[in-house]
DNA sequence: CCTGACGGTGAGCAAGCGCTTAGGGACCGG
DNA sequence: CCGGTCCCTAAGCGCTTGCTCACCGTCAGG
């Protein structure tokens, strides 16, 4: 561990997959700006300024402002989906897997709420092609949750009269964390994850 | 019943409180445009065009584009809060009142999802003064829901370890309906309201 | 020392933005 | 018929936007 000191926890640094360094700095600046003001209210000058560069520098690494949003959205969705699947595909009862899935999915949305806000709420700002690509990823997220719930119903663990509706509500609940979560608030991402996992278990009729 | 034929249900027409007629047409056009593309991506020319008027006509009835958003947000919040309180202040057990509250609040968000989308998701686009005014209204919404939950806990009807957290989650769930509800979807606003009322009852430990 | 590639800047263009202003037509009381 | 009021439009102002282009410093390879 020589360059770019880690926090020691073993967690890899965010946006490590983006290179070169200048492109990553621009992307991080864009995430902050988009999350704060929204895509349309953010100017390319603002993004470049936050990254400590001139407005023109942005266009060396990205063709358009929309491409920046797409890159953020794509990477963010990939990560959220990976986190969800890791928990969903684990061992254990449906209740245990649903708990793990909600806990980690919600935890990610809270801990990375700036990224999550952009990922979840700026979908309409994408161009038509990029949007359909992202929508496909969201459908996979949907399926992952629905599969756990169906497993639980089949095993007799859950009592769910309306599986598609409940799936929709569970995901809606988790995603909306990105909108209201605030670092200055009283709850840590882990605490929110635990609370939500409990609430979701109750929703599927497998409460404590 | 002579002018502006009603649907017969006794429901008064939306935005009836806005006059004169041209101002109401502009406001309705703005709601549609804001809901579709977002506040910042909507131009004053677009709003005026939808209302069948020239761009300058907007400024006869509204001082700025932001004032239009504020009017929409204010009226929408008032209406949503009124609907919630009517149900919350009714007779019956806490469970019955919570059911009625969620059912009508969610039903409104689904039926008027274009308005609700603007009201709930364009808060940041308001100016500082207008935003604090609206935030105060949202706090009252929060209190109304928390009061019912507290009543239920006190009466022994509900089992809620974390009242503020559960209140937050319930409202988050209800509000997010505005984001995903689609007229082309399979569910009517009433059906969504009934489903959500059931889910919320489970969340507070008073499930069927 | 020269050369070329790379990654950056300063200045600025065309287009679109929110908003203003001068003026016109319909209507109404006298 | 007149004068005033109420809405509305055509034109356009000043500014910001996303994006481009000519140019430049740095540095490795020959």
Q: Give the second-level CATH assignment, the architecture of the largest domain in chain A.
A: Orthogonal Bundle
CATH homologous group name of the largest domain in chain A:
Tetracycline Repressor, domain 2
Structural class of chain A: mainly alpha
Integer average pLDDT of chain A? 92
Q: What is the helical fraction of chain A, as a range of percent?
A: 55-70%
Sheet having the most strands of chain A: none
The dominant shape of chain A is: elongated
Greatest interface and its participating residue counts: A-B, 30 and 30 residues
Tally of contiguous helical segments of chain A: 10
The CATH topology label of the largest domain in chain A is: Tetracycline Repressor, domain 2
Instruction: Describe the oligomeric state of these chains in a short phrase.
Output: homodimer
How many individual domains of chain A? 2
The whole-angstrom Rg of chain A is 19 Å
Q: What's the total count of β strands of chain A? A: 0
H/E order of the elements of chain A?
HHHHHHHHHH
Overall CATH class of the largest domain in chain A: Mainly Alpha
Question: Strand share of the residues of chain A?
Answer: under 5%
